[in-house]
Design brief:
Chain A: Belongs to the binding-protein-dependent transport system permease family. Chain A: It holds the Pfam family BPD_transp_1_N. Chain A: It is found in: Cell membrane. Chain A: One of its GO terms (molecular function) is dipeptide transmembrane transporter activity. The complex is a heterodimer of chains A (313) and B (290). By secondary structure, chain A is mainly alpha-helical. In chain A, 78% of the residues lie in helices and 0% in strands. Chain A has helices spanning 2-26, 34-38, 45-54, 61-73, 87-122, 127-141, 144-158, 174-208, 211-218, 223-261, 266-275, 279-307, 309-312. The N and C termini of chain A lie close together (8 Å). The model of chain B is unreliable at 1-15 (pLDDT under 50). Classes of the chains: A mainly alpha (313), B mainly alpha (290). Chains A and B meet through helix 1, helix 6, helix 7, helix 10 and helix 11 of A and helix 6, helix 7, helix 10 and helix 12 of B.
C-alpha cells in the first residue's frame, strides 16, 4: 500500500506542476500588457506598476513562472482586483460551500442512481430497464442550468414552496441551509445519478453472471440475499472509484448550478472573476479544482485497492 | 512476403467497414440519433428559409407574447420570435460541436498515435501533458480559456476544442498500444516500412473507429459546453441567436414568459440526445465487445 501511495504521489506531483504551468500560461493568452489586463477595470497607474513589479513582467517567462510558483507555494494566490481581498482567504471561505453542495449532490446521485441501476440490471430487457435507460440518457443530456431554471419556475415561481436562490450558512440555521441547498443538489446530482446508474447496471449484470452467484443459487440462498449480500458488494467496488472521481466533476459542475441559484461558492467565484476580468481569481480556481481532482483520483486508486481483497496483497 | 501482401490491412478495413455500416443500420439508437442530427443540420443550413421571422427583428407590439398562431414559441423581451431564434441558434450549437471536436481530434489523435507507437520518453511526456489537461475538469478549463481568450463563438469553440484534446490523446494512445502488438505491425516493420507509413497506413485505420465513437459522444458534451459558455456570456455575442444566451436572458423573465426558457432548453436537450444516441449506436456497431 505504501509503495502504491508513493508511486501515485510520484506521478501526481509532476502532473500538478504541469497544471500550474498551464494555468500560468493562461496569462499569456491575454492580449496586450498583462499588468494592464490583470488590473481589470482598475486604471490606477500605481496598481498597474505594482503588478508589473510583483510579477516581474519585464523578466523572461521562466523567471516570471518561478516567481509566480514561489508565491503560490507560500499560499499567495494574489489579490482579487474586484474584492481587494487575498485570493487565498476567498478560497478558504468559498470552498466549504461548494463542498457541501457537492456532498449533498453525491447523496442525491447515490440515492437515485444506485437503486435504479440495480433494478435495471435485475430486470434487464424489461420496460423497467428501458425506463432506466431513458433516465440515464436524460440525465446526461439535460443541461444543469436549464434544469435549475425549470425547477425554479415550478417550485419557486409557480408553487412558491422553495426559495429561488440564495444561501443560508449552516451556522445560521441548519434547516434553512438544507432547504436552500435542496434544488441545487437535485440539479447537480441528477447528471451524476445518470452516470452512476449506468455503471451500477453494468457492474450488477456482470456480478450476477459470476460463479459465486450460481453457487449461492444452487445452495438455495434467497434471491434478495444473493443480490444484496453477494452481488452488490462486488458490483460496488468500481462504483466507489467512479463516485470518488465524480466528486471532482461535481466541483466543476457546481460552476453553473451556483450561478443559477446564487450560491456564493467556488463556482460563483470563478464566474464573478470572469465577469469582472479578475484573472488571478480564475487562475486560482482552476488550479484548486485540478488539485482537488488529482487528489480525488489518488483517493479513488487507494480505495479501489483497499476494497478489492484480490489486489490488497 | 506474399502472405503478408495477401492480407493488407486496408482491404480488411474495407470489408469490416461494410459490415459495420450494416450493423450500424440495425442499431435503433443510431438511426433515431441520426434522424435527430439530420433534422438539426437541415434547420441550420436552411434557417433563412425555414424560420418564419428575422431572428433579430424586434416587434414592439408583441413583447413577451405567449405562444400563439403567429408566434408558435412566443416572443422574447424585445418581441423577437423565439421559434426563429431557436432555428437560427442551431447554427451556433452545431458549429460549436463540429468545429471544437474537429480541433480536438486533429490535435489529440496524432499525439495519441505517436505516444502509443513510440512509447518511452515520447509517451511519458505526451501522457503527462494529457493528464495535466485532464486534471482540470472540462467545463472549468473551457470557462477559463474562454475568459482569457475573450468572449466570442470562435474563442468558445477553441476553448472547448483544447479542453477536449486529452480525451482523444488517451483513446488514440490506448488503441495504438493494442494495435502495435498485432502481427501485421511486426510484418510491416519486417517489410521495412517507415514509421510514418506504418502509423498512417496500418495503425491509423484501426484507431479511427474508437476515435469516431469518442468524437460523437464528445460532440454532445461540446454542445452542452457551448450552451454553458453562452449562458455565462462567453459564447456567441448578442444579438446573434444562441440557445445558451437565450436561456440567460430568459432567467430574468421566468415568471412572465416561461416559454423563453422552455424552448431553447428543449432544443439543447434534443441535439445532445441526438449525439448521445448516435455515439451509443456507433459504439455497439463498431465495438462489438461492448
Amino acid at each position: 500500500m505504501k509503495t502504491l501511495l508513493l508511486r501515485r504521489l510520484a506521478v501526481l506531483l509532476p502532473t500538478l506542476l504541469l497544471v500550474s504551468m498551464m494555468v500560468f500560461g493562461l496569462q499569456k493568452l491575454l492580449p496586450g500588457d498583462p499588468a494592464l489586463a490583470l488590473a481589470g477595470e482598475e486604471r490606477n497607474p500605481e496598481v498597474i506598476e505594482f503588478l508589473r513589479q510583483k510579477y516581474r513582467f519585464n523578466e523572461p517567462i521562466p523567471v516570471q513562472y518561478g516567481i509566480w510558483l514561489k508565491a503560490l507555494v507560500h499560499g499567495d494566490f494574489g489579490t482579487s482586483v474586484r474584492t481587494r481581498l487575498p485570493i487565498g482567504t476567498m478560497l478558504v471561505e468559498k470552498l466549504p460551500v461548494t463542498i457541501e453542495l457537492a456532498v449533498l449532490s453525491m447523496l442525491v446521485a447515490l440515492l437515485v442512481g444506485l437503486p435504479i441501476g440495480i433494478i435495471a440490471a435485475l430486470g434487464r430487457g424489461t420496460p423497467l430497464d428501458y425506463g432506466a435507460s431513458l433516465f440515464g440518457l436524460a440525465g446526461l443530456s439535460i443541461p444543469h442550468f436549464w434544469l435549475g431554471i425549470m425547477l425554479i419556475l415550478l417550485f419557486s415561481v409557480n408553487l412558491g414552496w422553495l426559495p429561488a436562490g440564495g444561501f443560508v450558512p449552516p451556522t445560521e440555521s441548519v434547516g434553512r441551509n438544507l432547504i436552500s441547498m435542496l434544488m441545487p443538489a437535485l440539479v447537480l446530482g441528477t447528471g451524476t445519478a445518470a452516470i452512476m446508474m449506468r455503471h451500477v447496471r453494468g457492474a450488477m449484470i456482470e456480478a450476477m453472471k459470476q460463479d459465486y452467484v450460481r453457487t449461492a443459487r444452487a445452495k438455495g440462498v434467497r434471491e434478495h440475499t444473493i443480490v444484496l449480500r453477494h452481488a452488490l458488494p462486488n458490483a460496488l467496488i468500481p462504483v466507489v472509484t467512479l463516485g470518488t472521481l465524480q466528486f471532482g466533476e461535481l466541483l466543476a459542475g457546481a460552476v453553473l448550478t451556483e450561478q443559477v441559484f446564487s450560491i456564493p461558492g467556488f463556482g460563483k467565484m470563478v464566474v464573478d472573476g470572469v465577469f469582472s476580468r479578475d484573472y488571478a481569481v480564475v487562475q486560482a480556481v482552476v488550479l484548486c479544482t485540478a488539485a482537488v481532482f488529482l487528489l480525488m483520483s489518488l483517493v479513488a486508486d487507494v480505495a479501489y485497492v483497499l476494497l478489492n481483497p484480490r489486489l490488497r496483497s | 512476403m506474399s502472405t503478408i501482401e495477401a492480407a493488407p490491412v486496408p482491404a480488411q478495413m474495407r470489408a469490416a467497414g461494410r459490415s459495420e455500416i450494416r450493423r450500424l443500420l440495425r442499431e435503433p439508437s443510431a438511426l433515431i440519433g441520426g434522424a435527430i442530427i439530420l433534422f438539426f443540420v437541415i434547420l441550420a443550413v436552411f434557417a433563412a428559409w425555414i424560420a418564419p421571422y428575422d431572428p433579430n427583428a424586434p416587434d414592439w407590439i408583441a413583447i413577451r407574447a405567449a405562444p400563439n398562431a403567429a408566434h408558435w414559441f412566443g416572443t422574447d423581451d424585445l418581441g423577437r420570435d423565439v421559434l426563429s431564434r431557436v432555428i437560427f441558434g442551431t447554427q451556433a450549437s452545431l458549429a460549436a460541436g463540429l468545429v471544437s471536436v474537429t480541433v480536438a481530434v486533429l490535435i489529440g489523435l496524432p499525439f495519441g498515435l505517436v505516444a502509443g507507437y513510440f512509447g518511452g520518453v515520447t509517451d511519458m511526456v505526451i501522457s503527462r501533458v494529457a493528464d495535466a489537461l485532464l486534471a482540470c475538469p472540462f467545463l472549468v478549463l473551457a470557462i477559463a480559456l474562454a475568459a482569457f481568450l475573450g468572449p466570442s463563438l470562435q474563442n468558445a469553440m477553441i476553448a472547448i476544442g483544447i479542453s477536449a484534446i486529452p480525451v482523444f490523446v488517451r483513446v488514440a494512445r490506448a488503441e495504438t498500444l493494442v494495435v502495435c502488438t498485432e502481427d501485421y505491425i511486426a510484418a510491416a516493420r519486417a517489410q521495412g516500412l517507415g514509421h510514418v507509413a506504418i502509423l498512417t497506413g496500418q495503425v491509423l485505420p484501426n484507431v479511427l473507429a474508437p476515435t469516431i465513437v469518442q468524437a460523437t459522444l464528445t460532440m454532445a458534451i461540446a454542445v452542452l459546453a457551448e450552451a454553458s459558455l453562452a449562458f455565462l456570456g462567453l459564447g456567441q455575442l448578442p444579438p446573434a441567436p444562441s440557445w445558451g444566451a437565450m436561456l440567460d436572458v430568459a432567467r430574468q423573465f421566468l415568471g412572465e414568459a416561461p416559454w423563453m426558457a422552455l424552448f431553447p432548453g428543449l432544443a439543447i436537450i434534443a441535439l445532445v440526445i441526438g449525439f448521445n444516441l448516435i455515439g451509443d449506436g456507433l459504439n455497439s456497431a463498431l465495438n462489438p465487445r461492448h
